[in-house]
Amino acid sequence: xxxxxxxxxxxxxTTICVVVFIKLKKIEASDNNWxxxxxxxxxxxxxxxxxxxxxxxxxxxxxxxxxxSMQVLNIMSLYFFQQGIAxxxxxxxxxxxxxxxxxxxxxxxxxxxxxxxxxxxAVVIANAFGFIPILILCFKTKKLxxxxxxxxxxxxxxxxxxxSFKISINAYFNYDAIAHVxxxxxxxxxxxx
Length: 193
Hints:
The chain is an all-alpha fold. The protein is built from 7 helices and no strands. It has helices spanning about 5-25, 30-55, 60-85, 95-115, 120-140, 145-165, 175-190. α1 runs parallel beside α7 (about 175-190) and α5 packs antiparallel against α6 (about 145-165). The model has no long low-confidence stretch (mean pLDDT about 95).
């Protein structure tokens, strides 16, 4: 295993996502899109664990297979997060249809960008375009549950900072592992919302 701590944190995120998925399934009022968000993101980090475990360098067909699969699942999870917002926060909004169209368009553009550029920056940009409007909507409502979701989104943005500046404690607890810890915290806060 080439990045053992990163692989461990991948599996920890997967575990958190599966546990949240199970808890949300038990809540009748829960919108299924939230379930799919957590399930697909958990699947994404599960697949990502193998990319971190088996490949020293991010090159070759084997690595690309895991990496592209991980990113497709990531973008699909973002789409279901957006749909969860459309069905809850935007439920009574006159702009709901417009937001659904925007979300669908973002999904297709992001998928194309992932395969076209095969660069993590495409994923970061797609997530930023996906989450920033939701963040604004969450804080504008001033409703505690959505503000809490917004705080979780803010925490998740720190992962881009950690990744961009490659902030690491050591070779094993590197920027990937630190970003994964931030994702775990972010998802727990989002779940509380």
